[in-house]
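Allow me, if you will, to draw on your knowledge of protein folds for a short while. Thank you for your consideration; the sequence and its tokens are set out here:
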Amino acid sequence: MEIGLGRLRLAPQDFWRMTLAELAAAARGTGLSVSDAATMARADLNRLCNAFPDHGRENQSTDDLYTTLYEQKDKLSAMAVAWR
């Protein structure tokens, strides 16, 4: 989100429609990389999850969400490396 909304200044609707591959390509095109993005701390994720719960995911632990976030970041990193 930091790269898409913050550094690339994409409109939210454009950011959310992008695939990971498109985001990686856009970041690369401006000289950015996934490693340039700040990493969210687990405590910050817990605060966000408590403040803004996803309806229908009440039983999903924040550990599962944290793992999913890092899996997505790893996929994006791998795509960026593969396309260089």
